[in-house]
C-alpha cells in the first residue's frame, strides 16, 4: 500500500475517534496536507506533511507509515513523527497556560449576596 485516504489515516493514527469526525474536521479546513487544504478522499503517501488544528498550536507531523487499521495507541504513534517546531510550540503554549493567572483567584468572597448587591446599587445611586 503506497497511498491511503486522508480521513482513514487520521482515524488509524488516532487523531480523531471516528472517520466521520475526521472527515468533518477536514471539511472545515482544520487539516492541511503539505500546507494545502485537503478533502477527506485526498490520498496521502509516506513523507507528506500533515497539519492538524485540534488545539491552539496546530500539530505538524510527517507521515512515516500508512495503515488502514486502527490499532493500539503505541502502534498508531509509529505512523507519524511530530516535527521539532510543533513540539516546541506545544510546550511553549503549555508553559504559558501554566503561568497564566487563575481567573477565579480574583474573586475572594465569591458571588455577591443579595445584601451585597443592594449595597452596590446604593453606592451607584440606583
Q: What features would you describe in this structure?
A:
The chain is an alpha+beta fold and 126 residues long. The chain is built from five helices and seven strands, in the order E-H-H-E-E-E-E-E-H-E-H-H. The protein has helices spanning 6-12, 19-27, 73-76, 84-99, 114-124; strands at 4-5, 31-33, 36-37, 43-44, 49-52, 59-63, 80-82. The chain has a five-stranded antiparallel β-sheet with strand order 3-2-5-6-7. Helix 1 (6-12) packs across helix 2 (19-27). The longest helix is centred in the C-terminal third of the chain and has 16 residues, at 84-99. It is elongated, with a radius of gyration of 23 Å. The mean pLDDT is 92.
Write the SSE topology.
Elements: E1 4-5, H1 6-12, H2 19-27, E2 31-33, E3 36-37, E4 43-44, E5 49-52, E6 59-63, H3 73-76, E7 80-82, H4 84-99, H5 114-124
Antiparallel strand pairs: 1-4, 2-3, 2-5, 5-6, 6-7
Short summary:
The chain has 126 residues and is an alpha+beta fold. Helices cover 37% and strands 17% of the residues. It has helices at 6-12, 19-27, 73-76, 84-99, 114-124, and strands at residues 4-5, 31-33, 36-37, 43-44, 49-52, 59-63, 80-82.
The Cα radius of gyration reads: 23 Å
Contiguous runs where pLDDT drops below 50 for at least 5 residues = none
Enumerate the strands of the largest sheet in spatial order, edge to edge or round the barrel.
Answer: 3-2-5-6-7
Order of helices and strands: EHHEEEEEHEHH
Helix-and-strand structural type: alpha+beta
Shape: elongated
**Helix count, per DSSP?**
5
- The total of beta strands comes to 7
**How much of the residues is beta strand, in percent?**
15-25%
- Give the mean pLDDT: 92
Work out the helicity level: 25-40%
Q: Give the oligomeric state.
A: single chain
* Spatial gap, N to C terminus: 74 Å
> What characterizes the major β-sheet?
5 strands, antiparallel
Amino acid at each position: 500500500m503506497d497511498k491511503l485516504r486522508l480521513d482513514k489515516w487520521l482515524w488509524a493514527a488516532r487523531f480523531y475517534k471516528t472517520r466521520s469526525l475526521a472527515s468533518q474536521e477536514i471539511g472545515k479546513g482544520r487539516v492541511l496536507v503539505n500546507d494545502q487544504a485537503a478533502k477527506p478522499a485526498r490520498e496521502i503517501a509516506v513523507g507528506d506533511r500533515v497539519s492538524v488544528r485540534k488545539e491552539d498550536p496546530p500539530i505538524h507531523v510527517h507521515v512515516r507509515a500508512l495503515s488502514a487499521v486502527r490499532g493500539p495507541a503505541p502502534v498508531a504513534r509509529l505512523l507519524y513523527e511530530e516535527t521539532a517546531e510543533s513540539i516546541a510550540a506545544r510546550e511553549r503554549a503549555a508553559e504559558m497556560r501554566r503561568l497564566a493567572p487563575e481567573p477565579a483567584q480574583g474573586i475572594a468572597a465569591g458571588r455577591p449576596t443579595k445584601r451585597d448587591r443592594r449595597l452596590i446599587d446604593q453606592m451607584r445611586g440606583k
